[in-house]
């Protein structure tokens, strides 16, 4: 079962530090705060909910805190929270293994996404000051560069940007860096610090969107050993507590835990735009250093600007 130690901070810590509400909605999760590994469709026994597609429940700092677990709900409760106009500011939604295309096809995933999103796009409460990201964790063919579609929707997208394409380089850490920029949050001191902020937000926050030096060489189609790797485990690396990006410093609680001189000798994070892969693993500062890799899943990001 995927678990991250309690001394590893997450986006929940960043949001709560600035008083930003958050929540997750997971399709077919059997009940609020469920921490099990999976839950199958009780009629067909098809794969439905899986823990590995629920990012925050993997953090012990969330799973061991009842108040935080109460923010991780079945997707059906999204609609009641919407009707009550009580949605959190940051939301992470995961469809089930059929709806997300994992066990089916992109056609099924597209149909589900359309049926879910279209009614929301005419809901004034939902759309006001909202940015929606629709994306996937990976492409279908492992031998090709792992590049996935990312679609931005919502009331904050200016009319002039409708139907346009952004050719800048982003990775999944950009989802975290974008909300850090939007709400002027602290950072985790990891790959979130170097990740480009989505230009739609960066234009408002004055963040610089950097160019990738060699996009043709980016594959990201294989994981290197890490704490979440199922076959090639490696210990947790240390965040770089001295990193600062656009005036955003590392979360004080992270500095308190990891900021000693001895710990900082072992960090692999330098605020670079390029992230490691199996073909380009982290550069260790010493033989004792460790590294970190965040597994992300099919997801949607929803936030209030």
Taken in chain order, the helices and strands follow as HEEEHHEHEHHEEHHEEHHE
Average pLDDT score: 92
Number of extended strands = 10
Find the structural class using helix and strand composition. Answer: alpha+beta
Trace the largest sheet across and list its strands.
4-1-5-10-6-7
% residues in beta strands:
5-15%
Unreliable runs: 288-300
Query: What is the terminal-to-terminal distance?
Result: 35 Å
Query: How many domain modules?
Result: 1
The total count of helices amounts to: 10
- Rg measurement, Å: 19 Å
Helical content band: 10-25%
Keywords: Hydrolase
Protein name: (Perigord truffle) hypothetical protein
GO molecular function: hydrolase activity, acting on ester bonds
Pfam families: Phosphoesterase
Characterization of the model:
The chain has helices at 11-17, 60-63, 66-69, 76-83, 106-117, 124-127, 173-182, 199-205, 252-258, 261-264; strands at residues 22-26, 38-40, 47-50, 72-74, 90-94, 130-135, 150-153, 244-245, 248-249, 299-304. The longest helix has 12 residues, at 106-117. It is globular. With 305 residues, the protein is of the alpha+beta class. The strands form three sheets. Strands 4-1-5-10-6-7 form a six-stranded mixed β-sheet. It has ten helices and ten strands. The chain has one domain (11-304). Keywords: Hydrolase. This is (Perigord truffle) hypothetical protein.
């Amino acid at each position: 079962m995927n678990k991250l130690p309690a001394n590893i901070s997450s986006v929940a810590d960043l949001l709560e530090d600035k008083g930003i509400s958050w929540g997750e909605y997971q399709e077919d999760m059997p009940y609020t705060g469920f921490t099990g590994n999976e839950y199958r469709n009780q009629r067909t026994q098809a794969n439905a909910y899986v823990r590995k597609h629920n990012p925050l429940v993997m953090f012990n700092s969330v799973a061991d805190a009842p108040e935080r677990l109460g923010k991780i709900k079945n997707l059906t409760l999204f609609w009641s929270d919407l009707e009550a106009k009580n949605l959190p500011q940051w939301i992470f939604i995961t469809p089930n293994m059929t709806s997300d295309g994992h066990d089916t096809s992109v056609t099924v995933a597209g149909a589900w996404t359309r049926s879910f999103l279209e009614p929301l796009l005419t809901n004034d409460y939902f759309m006001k000051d909202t940015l929606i990201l629709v994306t996937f964790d990976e492409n279908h063919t492992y031998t090709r560069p792992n590049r996935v579609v990312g679609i931005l929707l919502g009331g904050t997208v200016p009319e002039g940007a409708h139907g346009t394409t952004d050719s800048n380089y982003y990775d999944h850490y950009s989802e975290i860096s974008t909300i850090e920029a939007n709400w002027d949050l602290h950072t985790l001191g990891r790959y979130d610090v170097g990740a480009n902020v989505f230009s739609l937000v960066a234009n408002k926050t004055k963040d610089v969107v950097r160019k990738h030096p060699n996009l043709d060489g980016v594959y990201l189609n294989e994981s290197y050993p890490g704490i979440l790797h199922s076959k090639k485990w490696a210990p947790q690396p240390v965040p770089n507590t001295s990193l600062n990006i656009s005036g955003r410093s590392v979360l004080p609680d992270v500095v308190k835990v990891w900021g000693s001189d001895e710990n900082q000798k072992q960090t692999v994070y330098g605020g670079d735009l390029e992230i490691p892969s199996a073909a380009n693993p982290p550069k260790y500062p010493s033989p004792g250093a460790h590294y970190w890799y965040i597994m992300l899943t099919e997801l949607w990001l929803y936030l209030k600007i």
